[in-house]
Amino acid sequence: MKIRQQYPAYTRFYKLLLTTICAFVFSLAFGNTEEIAKEKKFNPGELIMDHIGDAHDWHLWGEGDNATSIPLPVIIYSRERGLDLFLSSNFHHGHKTYKGYKLEHNHVLAVNETEAVDAHEATVNEDLTKSLWDISITKNVVTLLFSCIFMLWLFISVAKAYVANKSSAPKGKQSFVEPLITFIRDEVAKPSIGPKYEKYLPYLLTVFFFILINNLLGLIPIFPGGTNLTGNIAITMTLAVISLIVIVITANRNYWRHIFAMPGIPIGILVILTPIEILGFVLRPFVLMIRLFANITAGHIIALSFYSLIFIFGEMNAGLGYGVSVLSIAFTVFMGFLELLVAFLQAYVFTLLSAMYFGSAIEEHHHTEEHH
Known about the structure:
By secondary structure, this protein is mainly alpha-helical. Helices cover 63% and strands 8% of the residues.
């Protein structure tokens, strides 16, 4: 009771998360039942990949030709045809070509035809396709822009509230953000980096909240078709590379000396040890990249796999499908709550590992003398 009275925003936030999970589960379980049932054969792999992959439109509901979606801008550049800009709705969900292009498995390909014809009959121009530059505003790009704008609004409004009410207790958004900021500062940055933690704290907080917010957005089915931004390896690779750049820029002489020529080690052993140290340095961003990508993507795949069991058994027998749906929905609900834990945990782990790498990069060499 004391916690609820002191931090009312936490209670509202937990209720919002619970509502989000329930909406996620039941929209998956019942939202597309009729459309999927009309298909000749249910393909769970195609369903899962469509939900965790990127897309050129904002899918709302429905399947196939009956799907309702918001078209997004398609921006294509090729040396031969130049720059083309149009909406993805011109592809008619991948059934038509437009301006010599067609959409196949969410990839834009160049075709020999220049008019809007059946995409299944169009011949792909392999040479032109290889030279295409697809810089379209896809579903993941929209999510990225939204999360950046949301973070700017959140932290600017919180900063203004602190300036306006310096002596009053935090309330509203402040009561939610302040404990997280304090936690990252006191439990992650200070122990891992040391006295110079303040220089790295803005980056660590940005990474933590960016990953956390996008992990939570991935659990909301109404947001761009259930986006999977942090489950996109390009996003996780970019975050990992930025952390690596910070290490390279701020690392001191002692750090590089321990990698290339560890002091006090014979030359014969350095021939073996130095390549291992260099390999360990190169693998650090891969650890950050793969850990976040694999955990977030695996959670979505498992939840959708339980959901797919309804239709797999439903194809065998309608009664069996309804019977399996009870267990399937129960497991999906469980995975939904587990995904909430993973959303916070993976943001924390990525931030903690980055802080530990920064701390090792600026650690000073301490000389000790022994007196006998």
